[in-house]
Every structure is written in structure tokens, then in C-alpha cells.
């Protein structure tokens, strides 16, 4: 009689489960894993290694691999503080420290970790000279770890190591060094002569010569140099940015367009919108003449000191937008 009741109860349970479409499943969480248990989409608790019976689909268990793993940042091209383009590869070793935060805290902790390390690499290289990087590769890797660690911990991840795999000069090393050295000398000579105040800046991580002009109300690139970076009057995102009219010269139209970065010294502006136009008409080799004018808008946001005896320019950012943009009409619209 008892056996018959037990069989009947079991059949009843199976019938009910089949009607409500519930399935009994056995989930194994291995020694190197932790399990995140959810019920109807809500996180319940963290599970250790073992076997668990659950009723699907209402309850689920997501295994998380806790073993150390490697992440490679290959071919990161960044400009050093003295204008040398480097190509760097980093090998990072990490493990999940908090599986709940790693899985529930962001959509993909692996992509977030990659981005944090990438930003740390760029900050380290852009703030260092090429000589210091080549002489002390160990300190370079340690600085990357120290910069990345706070952000990595917020992901629920532990950064075990971040080591430098490759460090090489992008492109032709001899040509790159020759351009950088010549640009430095050109800028210093101009300061020494007193005729013009020129120095090296970087646009989209590429060095070029710029002219500091207190008579220019706005900063602007030459039209031809903007085109070197694929920005023309017909490019997406380019708009009319005004008209410059001076005594005894033709009116000059300005346009504004998006660029990836602008750097001067250790100051880096990401995704700037810059003006460009026929502001300088000189032609010549890439490093022989200025390709950009830094005007009053740049000076308003900085405290600048030109030490001609030292052939150096010192500046400090004081606040505000460095290259402000306002809606403006072209020269044809002003006639």
C-alpha cells in the first residue's frame, strides 16, 4: 500500500512538472569555479564547488572560472612626451577576486580591463620621454600597474602582473628620430632668434611645429595639414567656424573639425574640435615651418612664460576650454 502511494506521488509530481514545463537539472560547480545562483533573474547567493539540483528555468546557476588568465594588449601606438611614436605590447595576468562584482557589476569585465590597461599605457608613455622609457622598462611596467590597479579592483578583478612584452619605435626609427630632433632644433632656434615663438606639439600623436601668436584671436591649423589627417571642408562633422578679417589682407574662412588628440608637453586634450583654414601659406618639409597657430584662446586657458635664454617655453593650465567653439558665419555670409 505504501509503495503504491509513493509511486502515485512520484507520478503526480512528474505530471505537475511536465504541465508547468519545469525541468530538474543537476549543475556541477568545479573546484576552480564559483557559482552565481539566480532565481527568476534575481541574484541569490554565491556557491562553492559541488553539485546542485535546481528547477529550471526559474532557477539558474552561472559558473565563474576563478583561475588566473592572461590578457594581451598588442601594438598600442602612443606618442611620448618628446614626440617619438612608440608601439607597445603588454601582457597582463589577472584573476577574479569578487565574482559577484565581476559578473553583475558590468557587461563584460574583460573588455573593461582591456580599456583600463590601455589608458594606463597611454598615460604612462605620453608623460615620459623616450630615453627614460628605453632605459628603465621595469619602472615603466610598475607605473602601468599602479595606474591601472584602482580601476581594476572596482571590476572585482585582481591584477597580478602587467609586463612589457615589446617596446619599439613605430615606422622607420632613423626617420622618426631625425624628424623629432629637427623639430626640436627648429623650435629652439626660433626662440633664440626672437623672430617667432615656435615649438613642437602633437596632433593625433604626430609631432608638428606650432607658432604662438598673441595677435591671433583663435587657434587654427593650416588647411593642408588638416587634410593630412583626413579632415577637409567636406568631412563629416566639419562646420563653418567664422571669418578672420585683418587690415590689408584677404578675409580668411575658418572651419572646425574633429581630431583624435592634441598634445603640448604633458598636457593632452582628447577628441578636440579644432579650427583650420589658410592661416599660414608657407610650404616646405614637414618640420620646417609651423603648421598651426596657437592664439588668444589658448593663452586665456594657460599661464605662459617664454624663457629665451633657456630656449624653453613654460606653461600651466589655469582652467576653462582651451579651444572654445561658437556658431559663426563664413566670410561670404558677412558680405
What does this structure look like?
The chain is of the alpha+beta class and 335 residues long. The protein folds into 3 domains: 20-65, no CATH class; 69-169, Band 7 domain (Tetrahydropterin Synthase, Chain A, 2-Layer Sandwich), CATH 3.30.479; 173-325, Acid Proteases (Cathepsin D, subunit A, domain 1, Beta Barrel). The protein contains 9 helices and 19 strands. The strands form 5 sheets. Strands 12-13-16-11-17-10-9-14-15 form a 9-stranded mixed beta sheet. A hairpin with a 4-residue loop joins β18 (302-307) and β19. α3 packs antiparallel against α5.
Quick take:
This protein has 335 residues and is an alpha+beta fold. It is built from nine helices and 19 strands. The longest helix is centred in the middle third of the chain and has 21 residues.
Structural features:
Cathepsin D, subunit A, domain 1; three-stranded antiparallel beta sheet; alpha+beta; single chain; Tetrahydropterin Synthase, Chain A; 38% strand; 9 helices; 335 residues; 3 domains
List the helices and strands and how they pair.
Elements: H1 2-19, E1 23-29, E2 33-39, E3 42-47, E4 50-56, E5 59-65, E6 69-79, E7 85-96, H2 99-104, H3 109-126, H4 130-135, H5 137-154, E8 157-169, H6 173-193, E9 197-203, E10 206-212, E11 220-222, H7 223-228, E12 239-244, E13 252-258, E14 261-264, E15 267-270, E16 273-277, E17 292-294, H8 296-300, E18 302-307, E19 312-317, H9 331-334
Parallel strand pairs: 10-17, 11-16
Antiparallel strand pairs: 1-4, 2-3, 2-5, 6-7, 7-8, 9-10, 9-14, 11-17, 12-13, 13-16, 14-15, 18-19
Amino acid at each position: 500500500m505504501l509503495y503504491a502511494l509513493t509511486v502515485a506521488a512520484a507520478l503526480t509530481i512528474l505530471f505537475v512538472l511536465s504541465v508547468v514545463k519545469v525541468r530538474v537539472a543537476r549543475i556541477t560547480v568545479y573546484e576552480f569555479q564559483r557559482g552565481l545562483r539566480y532565481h527568476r533573474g534575481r541574484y541569490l547567493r554565491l556557491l562553492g564547488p559541488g553539485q546542485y539540483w535546481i528547477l529550471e528555468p526559474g532557477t539558474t546557476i552561472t559558473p565563474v572560472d576563478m583561475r588566473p588568465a592572461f590578457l594581451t594588449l598588442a601594438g598600442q601606438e602612443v606618442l611620448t612626451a618628446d614626440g617619438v611614436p612608440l608601439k607597445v605590447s603588454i601582457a597582463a595576468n589577472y584573476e577574479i577576486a569578487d565574482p559577484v562584482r565581476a559578473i553583475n557589476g558590468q557587461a563584460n569585465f574583460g573588455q573593461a580591463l582591456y580599456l583600463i590597461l590601455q589608458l594606463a599605457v597611454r598615460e604612462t608613455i605620453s608623460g615620459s620621454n623616450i630615453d627614460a622609457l628605453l632605459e628603465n622598462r621595469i619602472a615603466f611596467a610598475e607605473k602601468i600597474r599602479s595606474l591601472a590597479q584602482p580601476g581594476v579592483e572596482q571590476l572585482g578583478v585582481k591584477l597580478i602582473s602587467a609586463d612589457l612584452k615589446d617596446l619599439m619605435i613605430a615606422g622607420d626609427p632613423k626617420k622618426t628620430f631625425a624628424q623629432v630632433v629637427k623639430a626640436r632644433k627648429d623650435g629652439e632656434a626660433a626662440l633664440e632668434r626672437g623672430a617667432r615663438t615656435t615649438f613642437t606639439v602633437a596632433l593625433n600623436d604626430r609631432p608638428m611645429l606650432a607658432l604662438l601668436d598673441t595677435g591671433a584671436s583663435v587657434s587654427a591649423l593650416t588647411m593642408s595639414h588638416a587634410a593630412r589627417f583626413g579632415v577637409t571642408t567636406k568631412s563629416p562633422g566639419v562646420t563653418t567656424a567664422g571669418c578672420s578679417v585683418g587690415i590689408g589682407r584677404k578675409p580668411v574662412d575658418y572651419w572646425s573639425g574633429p581630431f583624435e588628440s592634441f598634445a603640448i608637453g604633458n598636457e593632452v586634450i582628447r577628441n578636440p574640435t579644432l579650427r583650420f583654414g589658410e592661416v599660414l601659406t608657407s610650404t616646405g618639409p614637414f618640420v620646417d615651418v609651423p603648421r598651426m597657430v596657437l592664439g588668444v584662446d589658448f593663452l586665456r586657458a594657460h599661464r605662459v612664460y617664454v624663457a629665451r635664454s633657456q630656449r624653453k617655453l613654460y606653461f600651466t593650465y589655469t582652467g576653462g576650454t582651451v579651444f572654445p567653439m561658437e556658431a559663426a558665419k563664413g566670410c561670404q555670409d558677412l558680405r
